[in-house]
TrEMBL record:
<dbReference type="InterPro" id="IPR000917">
    <property type="entry name" value="Sulfatase_N"/>
</dbReference>
<feature type="signal peptide">
    <location>
        <begin position="1"/>
        <end position="20"/>
    </location>
</feature>
<feature type="domain" description="Sulfatase N-terminal">
    <location>
        <begin position="23"/>
        <end position="371"/>
    </location>
</feature>
<protein>
    <recommendedName>
        <fullName>Arylsulfatase</fullName>
        <ecNumber>3.1.6.1</ecNumber>
    </recommendedName>
</protein>
<keyword id="KW-0732">Signal</keyword>
<dbReference type="InterPro" id="IPR012083">
    <property type="entry name" value="Arylsulfatase"/>
</dbReference>
<dbReference type="InterPro" id="IPR017850">
    <property type="entry name" value="Alkaline_phosphatase_core_sf"/>
</dbReference>
<comment type="similarity">
    <text>Belongs to the sulfatase family.</text>
</comment>
<keyword id="KW-0325">Glycoprotein</keyword>
<dbReference type="InterPro" id="IPR024607">
    <property type="entry name" value="Sulfatase_CS"/>
</dbReference>
<dbReference type="Pfam" id="PF00884">
    <property type="entry name" value="Sulfatase"/>
</dbReference>
<keyword id="KW-0378">Hydrolase</keyword>
Amino acid sequence: MRLNLRVALAALAGLPAVLSSRPNIIFVLTDDQDTHMNSLDHMPLLQKYLMNEGTTFTKHYCTVAICCPSRVNLLTGQLSHNTNVTDVIPPFGGYPKFVTEGYNDNHLGLWMQESGYNTYYAGKIFNHHTVDNYNAPYVRGFTGSDFVLDPTTYQYWNFTTTHNGAAPQTFLGTYSPDFTAARAYEFLDEGLNGVEKDNTPFFMIVAPIAPHAEVILYPTMKAGPPSSAQRHQHLFRDYEIPRTPNFNPEEASGVSWIAQQPRLNDTVIAYNDEYQRQRLRSLQSVDEMVAKIVKRLDDAGQLDSTYIIYTTDNGYHISQHRLHPGKECSFETDINVPMVIRGPGVPAGLVKDAVVSSHTDIAPTIMQLAGNPLRPDFDGQPMAVHEAVNSGPEHVGTEFWGYAIPEGKYGYSGKYGFIDGPAEAHPNNTYKGLRIESARYSLYYAVWCTNERQLYNMKTDPYQMDNILGDTPKKSKTSGPASLLLGRDLETVVDRLDALMLVMKSCKGHACIDPWRQIHPRGDVNSLADALAPRFDAFYERQPKVAFTSCELGYFPDAEGPMDYHVFSGGVLDHIREQLPLVDPNWSLWT
């Protein structure tokens, strides 16, 4: 490996290499890549060049399990209830919504460009970014770009792109992930030339469509497994989706429409196994791309001055909880996503499994790595990428609005027109979620627009099969979370979770980063464990509870029940509240 000259000189001067110049940053963003079917285990080059040489975050989460809202979240550092981009198509989402909400003039690419970086983008950016609106307006913020465009975004062998804003051009017989990789190499060479010529660093986003389903819109709309390059067709013939306890379980799981799903038959399961094999095959092009990017950086002497961040927009399920291929759900399969970072000062071969981070933290992380100031409207904070020890928050909020759309041969949507199967698009898939992870406890709590609730003790139930708040008791319910949560009863725990969710579901800025301080401004409560202190019982019992008044397809605050929460001052009134028996919460002293 050749060492960058500036890095070597900095080392001789006794300075940290990371301070020798502004680093280059490459952000690889796949589409719908899973963690829980072990896709990273089948990417040996990614393991060699990124995971072995960088840090893997196993508790990293998307905050909304669908591509367009998630990508806006990544580019803005703001949660979807603040961006108001909550779907993949208008009126609630897609590229037009990104524009009308003002984000084409206010996103990470622009901030990096304005701070002196050359910026590049290759691949998919948003749904409904089309051959008709690609220039109305052009996507701002990139020195060079090559975007795949609807209606052929998800066609692997027949797709259309716009290169640096030029008129759309269609490519037949070219494999889309390979094409995106080739464009990435061109932009990388251009960025490296800028570094060599005048020491201008570069920031590049590479977003291949793999392993997203192949979607053909015309003449009839179909969605099936992704295509793969011929050189990879022989791979993974013996692979099967891990037969975990939540794989096509005998008993239904979840709530709302998920709890009504019938078991998958052998034909569907065989199809689903092959579906996932095709997803893994499509990722091999991405795996090769990662290796070639690293080699190009190394050959240019810039590898030690470059951060490479690898993640995906959202996770994916296939057969878990009896579900057809898809995303958009509140389970760990859909929200827990790959996250690997390699770069100057990042510990090599480290796995962080007790730190909760989210996509909302990516833009702040990149801005900090680039030496740029953090924005006050960030709903996230920089990840501790240089620390070997586990540190960070214990919470992440998730949210979703609208339909769940099954994919594949046996998945069909009347709303979007998928054919060849009996399953329908599922309404009432609007929910708010809360994931909490610490050494002492691991919980997932969700409230759906139907006002059904889910609570999983993931220390004892990592596959989310036993909804502790469900109607049907199971054996694990005898312990619940009580043994892990200071011995408190279930209702007491839920009181705290509801209060935390009340903050998270409409938070802005620092309130999203430190939600407990919004409830306890004195700063003496910083975790669920702290909040479970018995002296707060009366206070939390009187807190409003999260509830919906209707199921909507977009973000309408009026449909999402209580928004305000009580604040604990620790003063005389709070002391009186703690000592008194329960009284009417509308009593004037309480407000």
